[in-house]
């Protein structure tokens, strides 16, 4: 009876040991086997037997992992205080290095991305942080990836997700944006006026060459006015009548000047030399007529 009990105990221990030694590695994982603390092998996906006492297997995921970097307050190179939060993505390439070279590689990558983000963004001005975000993200990714490469990991992207500005800075930027929009609107309006003036100049030159065209334009305008059923129609005076009146005025002025020049008295002759004789009363005597 005691023999059967001992046999049952041994069988139970063997079953428990075998169950503890059978390991399953998923498709997205790799298993690093340690034999008494030393790296023995790298297990591929599937069912594996790992002796429970002598060996230990650690599973490492090869999936892309997302790290959320909480908001951090920093001062940019132009002395503006902002709060920046970001997100990073990384993936393990070498499971052995990820376990041997660094302790808790997930925490290490998160802290590294956080420190690199703060140190890199302190060197850029606010305008670059807001307008050239893609260049900053590429720089951050290259810096973090260069550090994590010896750890057997690759950082695919470090992205600045949001930049929180102070309320006073947001109001100043809103005023700047409004002024910029007004400037653009004035430039567009001025360009439109310039194009309209150019077109009117060309049209005036064309109408000057063809006098009948302006008459046709007047008739078309009257037709448009009459289509609206207005009770009052302003009829424009033809330009030709104005030109005829100007020509008549100039002609009459020229004739008047000529008439004034013809009606002026002739100039007197030169005076007679010496005094003329008098008749005793002080009246000069008439000159005697001489015959030929």
Features:
3-stranded antiparallel β-sheet; Tetrahydropterin Synthase, Chain A; 8 strands; 292 residues; single chain; rod-shaped; alpha+beta; 8 helices; disordered C terminus
Structure description:
The chain has 292 residues and is α+β, with helices and mostly antiparallel strands. It contains eight helices and eight strands. A three-stranded antiparallel sheet has the order 3-2-5.
Q: What's the gist of this structure?
A:
By secondary structure, this protein is an alpha+beta fold. It has helices at residues 2-21, 95-100, 105-121, 126-131, 133-148, 167-209, 211-227, 239-262, and strands spanning 22-25, 29-35, 38-43, 46-49, 55-61, 65-75, 81-92, 153-164.
At CATH level 3, the topology of the domain at 65-165 is Tetrahydropterin Synthase, Chain A
Gyration radius (Cα, Å) is 54 Å
In terms of quaternary structure, what is this? single chain
| SSE sequence, one letter per element | HEEEEEEEHHHHEHHH
Helix content: 40-55%
Helix and strand content put the structural class at alpha+beta
The average pLDDT is 80
Order of strands across the main sheet: 3-2-5
Q: Architecture of the domain at 65-165 in CATH?
A: 2-Layer Sandwich
What is the CATH top level name of the domain at 65-165? Answer: Alpha Beta
SS summary, helix count: 8
Largest sheet: 3 strands, antiparallel
Strand content: 15-25%
CATH H-level superfamily title of the domain at 65-165? Band 7 domain
Overall body shape? rod-shaped
């Amino acid at each position: 009876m005691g023999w059967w009990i001992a046999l049952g105990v041994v069988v139970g221990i063997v079953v428990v040991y075998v169950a503890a030694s059978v390991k399953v590695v998923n498709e997205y994982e790799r298993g690093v086997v340690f034999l008494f603390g030393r790296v023995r092998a790298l297990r591929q996906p599937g069912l594996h037997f790992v002796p429970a006492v002598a060996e230990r297997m650690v599973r490492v995921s090869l999936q892309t992992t997302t790290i959320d970097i909480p908001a951090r307050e920093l001062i940019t190179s132009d002395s503006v205080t902002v709060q920046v939060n970001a997100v990073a993505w990384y993936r393990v390439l070498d499971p052995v290095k990820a376990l041997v070279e660094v302790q808790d590689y997930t925490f290490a990558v998160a802290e590294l991305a956080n420190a690199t983000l703060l140190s890199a963004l302190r060197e850029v001005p606010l305008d670059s942080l807001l307008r050239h975000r893609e260049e900053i993200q590429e720089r951050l990714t290259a810096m973090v990836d260069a550090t994590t490469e010896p750890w057997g990991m690759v950082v695919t992207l470090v992205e600045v997700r949001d930049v929180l500005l102070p309320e006073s800075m947001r109001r100043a930027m809103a005023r700047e944006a409004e002024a910029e929009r007004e400037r653009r609107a004035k430039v567009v309006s001025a360009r439109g006026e310039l194009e309209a003036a150019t077109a009117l100049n060309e049209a005036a030159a064309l109408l000057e060459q063809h006098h009948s065209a302006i008459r046709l334009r007047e008739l078309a305008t009257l037709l448009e006015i009459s289509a609206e059923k207005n009770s009052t129609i302003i009829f424009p005076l033809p330009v030709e009548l104005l030109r005829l009146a100007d020509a008549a005025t100039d002609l009459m002025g020229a004739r008047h000047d000529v008439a004034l020049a013809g009606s002026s008295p002739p100039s007197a002759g030169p005076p007679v030399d010496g005094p003329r004789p008098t008749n005793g009363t002080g009246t000069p005597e008439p000159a005697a007529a001489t015959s030929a």
